[in-house]
Amino acid sequence: MRKLGLALALLVLASGAACAAYPEKNIQGYIMWGAGGAMDNVSRAIVPIAQEHLGKTVILQNRTGATGAIATTFVANQPADGYSILFGAENPNLYKVTGLSQIDYDQFEPVFLMMANVGVVIVSKDSPYTSYKELIDAAASGKTITMGSTGPGGLPYVATTMIEKIHNVKFNKMQFDGEGPCITALMGGHIDAVAVGLLAAANFIHSGNVKGLAMISSERIESVASVPAVTEIYEEYRPYLPWGAFFGAFVRKETPAEALDALRSAFTKAFQDPRFDEFARTMGGVKLGIAGEEAKKYIRQNQSVAAWLLYDAGGAKFSPEEFGIERPQGK
Amino acid sequence: MEQNLQYFLIPFLSWEMMLLIWVGVFAGIWVGAIPGLSVTMAASLLISFTFSWDLNSALALICGVFVGGVYGGAITAILLNIPGAPAAIATGIEGYPLAQRGEAGKAIGLCTTVSVFASFVGILVLSVAAPVIANFSLKFSPRDFFLLAVMGILLIGSIGGGDPIKGITAGAVGVLLSMVGMDPSTGELRYTFGNIYLMAGISFVTAMIGLFGVSEALIQFRNAGKKSPKQNLDRIIPNWATFLKYLPLSIRSSLLGVFIGALPGTGGDVAALLAYDQAKRTVRNPSRPFGTGAYEGIVAPETANKGAIGGAFIPMLTLGIPGDAVTAIIIGALYIHGLKPGPMLMIETPHLFWMIVSCLSIASVALMVLGLVSVKPFAKIIEIPKEIIMPVVIILSVIGTYAIQNSVVDIFYMIGFGIIGYFLRLYGYATGPMVLGLILGPMLDANYRRAMQGAENQILPFLEGFVTNPISLFLTLSIVFLVVSQTSFYRRWRGLE
Amino acid sequence: MEEIREFEAEGTGPEAAAGEKELSKYVPEAQRKPGELGIAALGFFLGAFGYYFALDMTSGEYSSPSVFPKLASTLIMACSAVNFFKALRRKKPEASSTLIGYLLPIDVVVVLVLLVAYCFVLPRLHFIVSSYAFMVIGMVYLQRGKNIVRALLISAASLAVLVAVFRYLFLVILP
């Protein structure tokens, strides 16, 4: 009888320990892109608000390299206890087909997807090209156009591949460490054009330092209403849209439900906070605010568009089929 | 004009901001001094920390930490031969021998004074010429960054006072090691042998702490019986005549620092190295031969990295492009507080510019006071017998290394580097060049490849660029001059031998 | 000008005069140190390995990822060869200095053993215990058993400060 009592007591104690409220200690957040970039800004904007709801600090670090693969691999190797969060963009979707890494969002559970980012093709304010058509015509005529890139899998890379495929042209590419340096190089005249996310480019378009030639989307975006949507100029883009980048927080798939729920609830509340609203408006991003199954579906759709696009254009080492990535519907 | 003056006075009228700046400088000095803790790290922590604060207060604190932090790295470099930050490597090369002679107090005193001067130079340039310099800095092409990195690398053969060829060997090993990991441009794995930890690359801060800190401790243990040098602390504040003597060098180096800081992506580290190099080659009669405790070797790098502070703000405030890692984080802070960094910043929120100028100025004054006041206590540290301080230094290195990425593997790396560094030094291979190689390797590699890509992978256009572009031409000629000026041929011609 | 010289020349201390060498110009020593040839050869092989593994990387263009590794490896091999031959030309090391004796004086050996032990113990006993042990043992050994109490106290004090700063100020969770 005593033994049973002891066993029961131990059981209660053990489950009590397991039920100790998450979070018990500070959480580590790893941002896959560099300081000052769009991913960094979104993460640093939402985390302080989410912290208020979590009760503990989330310590943010930038862990850059290899279009986010270093951060992704790192967090995938941390214990799945909910104390390591990956703040990632859409790049991991292409790791498998480019052969960059075997670890992508399949090993993660999305906590929350904060914002989406649409691509825009920009040139410097002194550029000879004043319209998107002029740029494409120049490329088609054999002139060398140098496009900026952030490495295989990044938004500029996929966008450029899309453009090359649709118009059957080839660009010369120069690689940088992020969208910020691409824009800097553009303003200095070291590259001719680049397709970056609107979040990075919005301010520069507003100030007139760069010209937006086309939004890679099927409709104009409010904050830069003067930039035409690419489908207005070339209908051929429509089957590939909508497509763009997204920013989210992820934890390992095996993370206990308790931690996941706490995180999800904190981020949802932070998302709805007017302070984050203000930030989103200023930055020019599109608020997403999805989680759970909806988020996974969104990510899968994004992956299928990007992966097949890349593969069809010859930019991927492996076929998406090998990884069970379906073709986007109707393409 | 009066508007700007009003903005300038904002911090003076708020006791909270004043206090924060002073606290920031004080904290920054410590952060900068502790190896492994960097200003960048502290800045990112502060951003989250100050999210709910008023923007002005947050900025005041961050400016203070920035100024203090860049200065702090020199302290441990001089006292313990462990640079608190890469910007202080050159300072340590000259400062540490000085400390061993008992002149730590003077070294730190001089360092503080010229640092404050240089900081003001940076602020002045920021206030007067920001837009011009920002636009000019945009014109720097990848090829030019490559040339700058080459200039930094040229330093390799000559620092450490050893056999130049051994120095180059160590430097080349450093460059090779910097390639370990995922290539940032193509994601390709280089030298990783399937090991996850190698995939993340070798952090140069880890290597630096090991190569300087732990190896120094091990070397010291060979002379276990030697007593610690007694410090002479009578005259720590340099007198006016001394200050004037180093004035031309200070001005040159701080302007160099401002400019390098203004280049997007490069900051105080590169500035300090280039300034030190420049000093070595242009100063005719250094107070002592370089490498044994030349005061010029402290003045040059320290003024450069302070000038770089003001410089880093130039592109940030005028164009919204970060001049270095810390300003990149500050840009993030501005976004979070609802501002729009970018070319519109000066137009929409003009008070910000002058307020930052004023915060930096106050921080510089705070640096003067706090720096000088702490010279004596700092210098006394060296008098602690090394049997006691070295174990503490080792543990400090351990925790500092861990703090970078929360990775225990880094600690093993660091100790490994320390042991390697110890053996290397026994054979005359200096560790400074290896760290330089680690720092400049990626800059060389990435920019060389970008320049090549710009020339569409063809050799002829690539080489052409060096002579057709005016900036590249200037830099190329400077490099040629730097190399030639070291050869006997040139020295004989100039009557130096 | 008197003042300036005074400011600069005040560094006294027995080490100052003895250690003053013309370090800005390199003057090679007459004898080579034990093991110097070995390390130059090691360097050469390191460069060779570097080049060999660089062959696996993508190449083909001038801007490939393999360019700089190959460059650096070649430079290492060239310099190591030069180092080797320069060392060869010097006189053999004195008969009295052995390789082990030169590389590993007893104090250094002890510290190395402590460091390696620390690496093993750290994941198991965690930071505070391991570091305290390391510092105390180190200090006591290096002072040859004197001042044990002082060693215990100073280690405790420094550890306390370090932990306070890193754990509570910078929110670093210690290993």
Question: Low-confidence runs of chain C (pLDDT<50, min 5 residues)?
Answer: 1-25
Tell me the Rg of chain B in angstroms: 22 Å
Number of strands of chain B: 2
Beta fraction of chain C: under 5%
Distance between the termini of chain B: 55 Å
Q: Roughly what is the average pLDDT of chain C, rounded to an integer? A: 74
Sheet with most strands: strand arrangement of chain B: 1-2
Structural class of chain B: mainly alpha
Radius of gyration of chain C: 24 Å
Spatial shape of chain C: flat
Distance between the termini of chain C: 55 Å
Q: What is the β-strand count of chain C?
A: 0
Helicity level of chain B: over 70%
Largest sheet of chain B: 2 strands, antiparallel
Structural class of chain C: mainly alpha
Count of individual helical segments of chain C: 7
Walkthrough of the structure:
The complex is a heterotrimer of chains A (331), B (497) and C (175). Chain A has 331 residues and is an alpha/beta fold. Chain A folds into two domains: 173 residues, 3-Layer(aba) Sandwich (D-Maltodextrin-Binding Protein, domain 2); 122 residues, D-Maltodextrin-Binding Protein, domain 2. Chain A is built from twelve helices and eleven strands. In chain A, strands 2-1-3-10-4-11 form a six-stranded mixed beta sheet, with helices on both faces. In chain A, strands 8-5-9 form a three-stranded antiparallel beta sheet. A two-stranded parallel sheet of chain A has the order 6-7. In chain A, β6, α6 and β7 form a beta-alpha-beta unit. In chain A, α2 crosses α10, α2 packs antiparallel against α11 and α6 crosses α12. Chain B is mainly alpha-helical. Chain B has one domain. Chain B is 73% helix and 1% strand. Chain B has 24 helices and two strands. Chain B has a two-stranded antiparallel ribbon. In chain B, a hairpin with a 6-residue loop joins β1 and β2. In chain B, α6 packs across α12 and α7 packs across α13. The mean pLDDT of chain B is 82. The N terminus of chain C is likely disordered. The N and C termini of chain C lie far apart (55 Å). Chain C has seven helices and no strands. With 175 residues, chain C is mainly alpha-helical. Chain C folds into two domains: 64 residues; 66 residues, no CATH class. Chains in contact: A-B, A-C, B-C. Chains B and C meet through α3, α8, α10, α11 and α19 of B and α1, α2, α3, α4 and α6 of C.
